[in-house]
Specification:
By secondary structure, the protein is α/β, with parallel strands linked by helices. It has three domains: 146 residues, Rossmann fold, CATH 3.40.50; 96 residues, no CATH class; 141 residues, Rossmann fold, CATH 3.40.50.2000. 24% of the residues lie in helices and 26% in strands. It has twelve helices and 23 strands. The chain has a ten-stranded antiparallel sheet with strand order 4-5-6-7-8-9-10-11-12-13. The protein is globular and about 70 Å long. It comes from Pseudobutyrivibrio xylanivorans DSM 14809. It is a peripheral membrane protein. One of its GO terms (biological process) is regulation of protein stability. It is found in: Cell membrane.
């Protein structure tokens, strides 16, 4: 097995969530070499990111027994006469009127690529979950007890053989590797084994979780080794200092003595709570912005509900703005009724290519739909430099500047703000800069200064 260099930084993630993705991309944009590792398996990780469990399963890219591409929802194998149905968010499996399974899709969900399938017992409790990867292979299966509590998870290699069994009751992990059986008492020991196997036990570890990644950092400490590991704290502000973070501040962590906070409000709160300033840094992300904001009077709305707050008032209050209202499903008659306005264009069942074109075309985004967010709309609006407006009652994500968040009762304020920015390019540019700042944007130079030393 190929060994890595001592100078390469390990990014050790619990989950490859949005914060992990942005941190990984920031290192790439800064051209800092890293080895990105994820503990909780996903099945749909991008190239350049390794899941520690899946590492032992073999190369699915060369597997003759799998499709080589994601499994579409209607390709799941079920007994005769069972029916599979789906919409753009999830799917289900029925035996006549009885629900037998639930299908969960990988992002973006409208592509309907299978990530998980939950199978139910006669009482409707989850008893088994099948895990599929981006190559269409069943690579793991989780079993549950009668209370739908996890019991164990089994991982299969490219030949369908049992390779790893994780017991959720005892925390034990059994690994069958190269003709030997290894038993680990917990995930920390399992991850440490993997790192030693790869020759990475002496590399710096940068992590964004105070659970297993923190324990791994501490476990791998060696006498005389400098404290070079870094915690990237990405959680929102809270009223106390987490216990394991206090261990770092007290100098009791074996390998880590600095914390990089990526949420500005959380950084300020930690200082208020007495965190030592010399061990605390604020640092955002290096985003890839896809275009400039040119102030065109075109606004985008993405919704999967008819409950779009104050849409009528906003459309009537800004007749010079063209509003593109999109949904990845059918639209209700209530929502479609807004087509009577000359400045409104509706896009039911919008295609991905059309959405991409609209994010490129529009310069404003209205985050005013109730219920859940679709297509990571505010995140996409942010990296496409659309200026985002929202109501407090409808806000999704963390990318909207405070100056552009209004109460529903102050719809007039939102209309006036947008109208003023359309008339003043300088003010619009300042608003975009503020959005970048509050969205935790940082420079490449600052990122390198903090992360390479």
């Amino acid at each position: 097995m190929e060994k890595a260099g001592r100078d390469e930084i390990i990014l050790l993630f619990d989950y490859f969530n949005r914060g992990s993705q942005d941190l990984f991309e920031s290192f790439r944009n800064a051209e800092i070499p890293v080895i990105a590792l994820v503990i909780n398996d996903d099945g749909f990780l991008p190239d350049g990111v390794t899941n520690i469990y899946e590492h032992f399963l073999g190369d699915y890219r060369k597997c003759d027994k799998c499709k080589g591409k994601p499994l579409y929802f209607n390709q799941i194998t079920v007994p005769d006469y069972w029916e599979i149905s789906a919409n753009n968010t999830s799917g289900s499996i029925h035996d006549k009127d009885k629900e037998r399974g639930r299908i969960f899709f990988a992002q973006p969900t409208h592509k309907r690529f299978v990530r998980l399938v939950d199978y139910l017992d006669e009482l409707g409790n989850v008893r088994c979950t099948e895990h599929y990867n981006k190559y269409g292979a069943l690579y793991a299966r989780t079993m549950f007890n009668k209370k739908s509590e996890k019991v164990n998870k089994t991982f299969f290699d490219t030949e369908g053989r049992e390779v790893i069994v994780e017991n959720y009751v005892t925390s034990d992990i059994i690994l069958n590797y190269q003709g030997k059986t290894f038993i680990f008492k917990n995930r920390t020991d399992f991850v440490c084994f993997f790192l030693k196997l790869r020759g990475l036990e002496n590399n710096r570890i940068y992590f964004n979780s105070l659970s297993v990644p923190f324990f791994v950092s501490n476990t791998l400490k060696s006498p005389g080794k400098p404290k070079e590991d870094l915690l990237f704290w990405q959680e929102p502000a809270r009223d106390d200092i987490p216990g394991n973070m206090q261990v770092i501040f007290d100098g009791k962590s074996g390998s880590c003595d600095r914390v990089v906070v990526q949420n500005r409000q959380a950084y300020r709160k930690l200082l208020e709570l007495g965190a030592p300033e010399e061990k605390l840094k604020h640092l955002g992300f290096i985003y890839t912005f896809h275009k400039k904001n040119n102030g065109h009077p075109e606004a985008l709305i993405c919704t999967n509900t008819e409950n779009v707050e104050k849409l009528k008032e906003i459309v009537e209050g800004l007749p010079q703005v063209t509003f593109h209202v999109t949904a990845i499903t059918e639209m209700s008659a209530k929502l479609l009724a807004h087509e009577k306005y000359d400045n409104v264009i509706m896009y039911p069942n919008v295609k991905a290519i059309t959405l991409e074109r609209l994010f490129n075309r529009c310069d404003f985004y209205l985050d005013i739909n109730h219920e859940g967010e679709i297509v990571e709309a505010t995140r996409r609006a942010f990296v496409y430099n659309l200026l985002i407006f929202s109501f407090k009652q409808t806000q999704h994500g963390v990318y909207t500047a405070q100056e552009n968040i209004f109460d529903c009762a102050n719809c007039t304020g939102l209309i006036q703000r947008l109208n003023n920015l359309l008339k003043d390019k300088t003010a619009l540019n300042e608003a975009i800069s503020t959005q970048h700042s509050e969205g935790s944007t940082t420079s490449t130079k600052e990122f390198i200064e903090i992360c390479k030393h």
